[in-house]
Write a structure and sequence with these properties.
The complex is a heterodimer of chains A (468) and B (286). Chain A contains 20 helices and two strands. Chain A is mainly α. In chain A, α2 runs parallel beside α5 and α6 runs antiparallel to α17. Classes of the chains: A mainly alpha (468), B alpha/beta (286).
Amino acid sequence: MATTTLNSKETFREWLFRPVVLGPLALIYVVVATILLVTQDRSSLWFPLANICLVPLFLVSPIVVISAPLPSKIKLSAILVMLIVVMPLVGMYNTSYLELAIQISIFAGLALGLNVVVGFAGLLDLGYVAFFAVGAYLWGSFTSSAETVFNINGWLVPGWTFYVFLIIGVFVAAVVGIMLGLPVLRLRGDYLAIVTLGFGEVIRVLARNADSPVNLTNGAQGLHNIGKPPLPGFASDFTSAISGALRIRLDNPTAVSQQLLFYFIAIAILVIVIIVSRRLLDSPIGRAWAAIREDEVAAIAMGVPLVKMKLLAFAMGASFAGAIGVLYAAKQTFIDPQSFVLLQSITILAMVIVGGMGSIKGVVLGAVIVTLLDLHILTNLSLQLNALKNQNFIVPIINFPIRSIPQQLEPAKYQPFVFGLILVLMMIFRPAGLVPSARRKMELQEREDVPEEDPEIVAEAIEVGENS
Amino acid sequence: MLLEINNLVKSFGGIHAVRDVSISIKEGSISAIIGPNGAGKTTLFNLLTGIYKPDSGTITFDGRSLVGLRPDQVNAAGVARTFQSIRLFPTMTVLENVMVGMHSRLRISLVETLLRPASFHEQEAHVQRKARELLRFVGLAGKGDELSRNLPYGDQRRVEIARALASDPKLVLLDEPTAGMNPNESNDATALFRRIRDELGITVVLIEHDMRVVMGISEHIDVLDYGQKIAEGTPEEVRNNPRVIEAYLGRRAAGTDVESKRDGQELLLDDDGEVLQVVDEAETDE
């Protein structure tokens, strides 16, 4: 049935979920979300609140398209258009959106890396941010103008080597991953979690103290003025030309171009990470990891070499973080040990759990949600409250003056509280995550199917229940 | 001889689980290892497959020593096994379970996994095809896409056997493969064990409590008691061996003595006083 009209026999819900209806609806959703986002009135009193609602709607649109029942060619081209054309333009219109998109890509990549270790191989790693730090310090030490041994001896590298360092970062982090993996191979579950937690702290403390006798990391002061990949010569003019054509006023075309460059690098890395994750999952390696996760003894008795496979999981997860660390250092231009605290590891883990362990789509969604909450929603709530306070806004009907809300209740200060709450609620209501992996989804469905298999028995049981 | 075990010893603290056991398994045979619970049969399997390391003694398989090899290396050497309590990967599909069993026969390369040359796809297609063939062989055609934990008990045992066969073993060790089956099911299972040897040419060793199965299928039986080998021979010889009868019957005669409690077993005898079946009280009571 290829018609889009409502058949009298089906409910509205069934009609809505028909591919011919839902597919185009997803595309319409994307267009509407984009238009709503860029037509906001930035001078409005309610701008932050509108932002809170519209930005998430816009940023999840690639995931909406991926999930929609559309031919894969259409999906792919729609997503390419969104990532390569729409997002950069929206980013020019408001650079804070671009920043958000970069942060989300960075954290989605990290979460996918952790997902290899935790979701695929079932090894709980609470020190994942250590590998991220390794990548970041690798690039930072070689380019920062801080008084490091590299700077003093003139070992600094030019900006274009950034791309080489992305690859070096992959390998260095993988080696560090194996170094972590070797001593913890015999540990499982809680014990593994505690050791990895300690490892994360070791790397952070190392970064803080490796400023003497040889200054490698500049200690607690951190590395500033970290190098960036060079901007192609045409980029700035190109950006100005496009913004001129679209009548977007850019204060600093070079800075925006630089951000756009980071955006494209981040997206490219994320796409590679997604492809690598998918290929790992759907391969003998992925099956071996799943087997280890389910039953180590059975796995090794069936010929799966535990040591090799666990080390491979640690190395793969770490390598993602290594490359992303290089990007992060270049983008932030400043890193210090405080950027790599335990809370970061837990935040990344929260993305994996919220999205759905083992599910690639889910983990990306988890990263979008948690990053938005962290960097966008709570901040904008605070902005909105302050704006209302400045206007001395009084809530109608109940005559409540916003100004009387105490300073201590500022939403941005409640980030850990909100995180904790979300995790608790997730564990109670969606323990397998928002988008459970195919395997977990199958489990849940099977469980729901059980009563349907034998309707008579169920009917009997109900009767018996009623009679007694 | 395909497998030669000589003077194998394993103790856990003060418990001598396996004491100076020597067993030979002929290539292409179906043999059974029997004995009361706690006789050290499963420990023997764990020693053979590298899960435990023997204190002393040698294990020679196909001309090479298995002592000191890791379980995955033993598997690669051609020894596959099933477990007494089913150890499938519960949330993987039946097909995936069998595919994991092929791990030691696959070329696993990270580069190929990521770059996906034609050879990778060929291998994956081969793995799938072979896994489906094995499922058909054990009588589970069409059940490949179900989660293994949703299968009935008897079918789960079959999946375990298919998974063990997936590594192209020369020798397969089946640890109580008919435990918990009714007579019909265990007849089917016995037929399957025979087909493993006849059609695939794989040597079969089973630990079994069901004497009907043991006596019906085994060409050679080794009897363990308290970690020691007390008898070996054809089913006929073992059945009439006074030490075997004593090992089983002595317990029953003693009624409530300590040994009987430890073993928690009783015997079913036919009219001639022959051992028909060892009933595991611990299991039936639960």
